[in-house]
């Protein structure tokens, strides 16, 4: 039988506020353990939470950017479960009246097809602390140490409908959500720091069926690669179980990235009776239409709109515009290049080409690129003016990567200016014709391709500086 | 009895409490008595009545996103039953 | 009257007039402790040295000619569920027997601005769960009027200390009557302010939507003064009310003429002690003589208040007390193989019977399958109970009824039957459910000479009117001048 996968994601995103959701402790990543704690986030007897206004603002912005409705009456609830990284043994979260509901994002698959993924809800909640353990895994450590710095860092949880049917769609969905959160600047989205992580729910059903199968869940997946790999593995595993006539057990499984497999966690049956109750220590949140509209108006241009604009305004292909707008930083870098008057298509090519290659090689973010948008724009300007060839530009770019000089200065200092002086080129052309009579003969006897070898020779002797168009013209002229 | 043995076991797990064998009958009886008394609520018609979680009509109380001083770590750990190198130390964790 | 028998407002005047020093007063109170504390057992912690130092500092200030505030230099007691930086806060629980809060509750911050003398931390029912202070894990407090009897609870230590003269004033907390009922049992004045009037930050939570801190004093005048000190919006408590705090002492006028006093028929029912009914009816009559208009009213959902309260408060308690797990503070059980066993052993070993019972009731009511029938149902009935009061207050200015259905009973008499204990709270829990202010003032004695309290209930944020009625009634009687016969006194 052939099966189809039904996938839903719960994405947790830490918000980039200065302070925790319910107290004034700093949220800075990487601080010395247990130094960003206070009576409130330690859950000491007698403490009460106070809601960070910016958390609400960020959650509403995220909701609007993800096409959600904002609930005008929202409240917090206690989600009760015991774990040592949760000092109160409940997580302050939102249950039946989350801040946002009924949104969606559109993803574009590699085959060009667009698919809409619906978002059920977005709610605000607090992050838990961290357990540090001595052994390889928590279960084979005799003791664990608890660091409460992360306890109370604000999170939004974005819950999708089970609208995805392949690991690729799940990855694209998560990439899209990340991109949008970065555009609206509510999260750092640094996946390696755990800013963005997803719980994956997956089940199988016979292709074409409407009935949902039993699902399994994999928690805290924090890279796009792992999203795809874990889902691919889990879909295959479920397929095998079903093919063998077995049943899928509803359970939480861990993804082991080293072994590339998922493992059952065998949690207790009633461990997930969360006994939600309204949080009596926090008052309801009431939002007006005017406030919601003000937030909507404060949103920047989002990826889909920006992509459409780049296609329309600069004639970029859908593919190029999609890549350029996939992150706000890249899109802004592109705008910076364009502002210098550089050609848009050249800009896109350079950003997606040499710049991305160099950034990847050194694991740098585009915002930290040694070549900023202005210098790249100037360099593209030199190409357009004919001062340097595209080939020379590659050398100039490598120099720019290493030193902060302007491209003009590099071109001048290194003597990389393109030779456009016809007379100077003519001298080289004459020498090359003389030295390559065989090629000349071939050309004259009708093998027009032979001119390529001659052009190559001229370029070589000019150390790449000769203007290739001039070289072509001169050769064609002289060879009749 | 309204309260079954299974109910008691479930409640004990949710409460992280052990019910000693010699107290089980007594605990069950007492829980049963109060729950039976609470059943008087079933006489109240609460159709169309909204639950009341907050007694005062207060809403939208916020704090500005301004960093306040955290506790000194030694003070944060001062009541810890067991600590090590600035961490709270706990026994082996078997469940996630 | 001896110094330790005087109310704070008298002692304040004596300090201002330099008739006494704070050190003399503090030493008198400490001597009284030496004399009677062995029988009363009101304190869990006595901070003698700090008290003497505080008193001396106030005396120096007076000697320098500086003016002093109302409570300055006057000894008081703090219920042991209010966090005091650097001094143990145990909630009368073994699980917190060594817990020292690294911060002060907001009420403590406000009090300390007044430089009072803090004598110590008062005994209570463990985590404020109980009505007799017998649920303290450490000691049973005796009622100063008869130490074989309970002082009431859960603020039994606070009320007993004020009644015994081992504190001039005290702070308590009231979730379902825990200030008013012990005040009634001990013949003193106790007020639960409107929910949100006083910050709960630093009050160790029992049931967060019901808890409120309030004063326990020797008379209504002291009550108004202390309410002035502790009230007001606190940025650390989102549920504290952002309303201007009136000067409550302005409400201390002897005049109830034309005030409409509601008498709820549902509060005078079967099971009520005849002495209580008789005494309270006499007090109502007195109010009428003083010019108040008595109106019989109905609060039809009163019968459901106990069930509602004993579902909501344990549900909130079950989550509030989940944090006592031996991980980052409090006691931890030894010899546990893993984390779950450690948590379970710790809680089983260090929490008391009544606390465990309420945690189990709460988790039962919140658990899958029972949530709608119990917890959600209770939240709905809570609204109906509140609406009863809303309707009643369209007709009347205050509501008057007994504080407790009986006077103080013998230690050990009721503790073995939880349900019977719960039913004792019938007159007090409705106010907490509705968030309303209430005061208990002494209104007479039972046939065996135990005090009886009159409860006056007001509209939300209208503590002034109940203070006015309480003051007018108090001044027409002399109960507030009576003192328990104890020790050499």
Would you give an account of this structure?
Chain B: It catalyses: L-aspartyl-tRNA(Asn) + L-glutamine + ATP + H2O = L-asparaginyl-tRNA(Asn) + L-glutamate + ADP + phosphate + 2 H(+); L-glutamyl-tRNA(Gln) + L-glutamine + ATP + H2O = L-glutaminyl-tRNA(Gln) + L-glutamate + ADP + phosphate + H(+). The complex is a heterotrimer of chains A (480), B (96) and C (489). Chain A has three domains: 3-291, no CATH class; 301-413, no CATH class; 422-478, Arc Repressor Mutant, subunit A. Chain A is 39% helix and 20% strand. Chain A contains 15 helices and 17 strands. Chain A has helices at residues 53-65, 167-183, 224-243, 289-298, 303-314, 318-324, 328-339, 344-361, 373-385, 390-402, 407-413, 422-435, 437-444, 451-461, 468-478, and strands spanning 3-14, 51-52, 69-70, 73-74, 77-80, 90-93, 100-108, 114-126, 130-133, 143-147, 154-160, 196-206, 216-221, 251-256, 261-264, 277-278, 285-286. In chain A, the strands form four sheets. A nine-stranded mixed beta sheet of chain A has the order 3-7-8-11-1-12-13-14-15. A three-stranded antiparallel beta sheet of chain A has the order 6-5-16, with no helix packed on it. Chain A has a two-stranded antiparallel sheet with strand order 4-17. In chain A, strand 7 and strand 8 (114-126) form a beta hairpin. In chain A, helix 12 (422-435) packs across helix 14 (451-461). Chain A is elongated. Chain B is α+β, with helices and mostly antiparallel strands. Chain B has a domain at 5-43. Chain B has helices at 5-15, 21-38, 73-76; strands at 62-63, 83-84, 87-91. The longest helix of chain B has 18 residues, at 21-38. In chain C, 38% of the residues lie in helices and 12% in strands. Chain C has helices spanning 8-16, 22-40, 48-63, 106-112, 156-164, 180-186, 220-230, 274-289, 305-320, 339-350, 353-366, 372-395, 418-423, 429-434, 463-476, and strands spanning 43-46, 75-79, 117-122, 169-173, 189-192, 213-217, 260-264, 293-297, 398-402, 438-445, 451-457. In chain C, strands 1-3-2-4-6-5-10-11-9-7-8 form an eleven-stranded mixed beta sheet, sandwiched between helices. In chain C, a hairpin with a 5-residue loop joins strand 10 and strand 11 (451-457). Chain C starts with 7 loop residues before the first helix and ends in a 13-residue tail after the last helix. Chains in contact: A-B, A-C, B-C.
